[in-house]
Amino acid sequence: MARLALVASPFTGPAAWRPVAERLPEAVAMDYGGVDGGYEAVARRIAAAMGEGPWIAVLHSGAGGFVPDLAEVASGLAGLIFVDAVRPHPGRSLRDVEPAFVAQLDARAESGRLAPWNRWFDEDPLPRLLPDAAVREAFGADLPRPAVAFLDAVPAASDRWERLPAAYLQLSRRYAPQADWAQSRGWPVERADLHHLAMVSHPAEVAADLVTLAFQVASDR
Fold first, then answer.
1. Nearest alpha-carbon partner for 63 in 178, 189, 180
2. Is the distance from CB of 169 to CB of 176 less than 8 angstroms?
3. Rounded to an integer, what distance in angstroms lies between the CA atom of residue 149 and that of residue 177?
4. pLDDT per residue of the chain (221 residues) written in tens, 0 to 9
């Protein structure tokens, strides 16, 4: 199986993927150093970390937005697995794609930085999603505070990513429309009855689904 670059959302840290990486020797929980510099800079850091040879990008949540730039700069990128992830939005910022949601984030920002992900909500979802206190503390300590300016950053206006084999793993009901979109494109789709942070709380189940999808993506090359 090709190596897997486990890419966290720009709004969570690499701790989100470490429990899965511990179960998959060929996987790396990517620490791409935050989103300063925008989409292309993130893509270049990921590509440099993975080096030569084929690898598959496994993208959680907002990391789906990195795909157009990854496809442009990463010569070894052999496929994509979206995990409860947004669709790529080439040539459009998050503010363009989700203006109402971005306005809510703006309202909670302080000193030019976004609030940590768990403070985007009226009630902190972490105790419900990650009931283990040690796991919850490790995840929460890793949450970044990206600059508000990232909401206006624009990914590459490129469709090169559409030529790559891809698959989708749905973890939560909220992302059912995204999984439906993937299925309509003829991609392999797995649907798990879990939640958005299941790679932290249920790493064995998520790892098993990734192995299944990675073999399918690799066979489509």
1. 178
2. no
3. 28
4. 789 999 999 999 999 999 999 999 999 999 999 998 999 999 999 999 999 889 999 999 999 999 999 999 999 999 999 999 999 999 999 999 999 999 999 999 999 999 999 999 999 999 999 999 999 999 999 999 999 999 999 999 999 999 999 999 999 999 999 999 999 999 999 999 999 999 999 999 999 999 999 999 998 87
Identify the residue whose tokens are 């800079």: 41
How would you label 68-102 residue by residue, b for 16+ Cβ within 10 Å and e otherwise? bbbbbbbeebbbbbbbbbbebbbeebbbeebeeeb
**CA 47 – CA 41 distance, rounded (Å):** 10
Q: Which of 213, 219, 115, 102 is nearest to 167 (CA)?
A: 213
The answer to whether the pTM exceeds 0.85 is: yes
Using alpha carbons only, give the angle 205, 29, 190 rounded to the nearest 5 degrees: 35
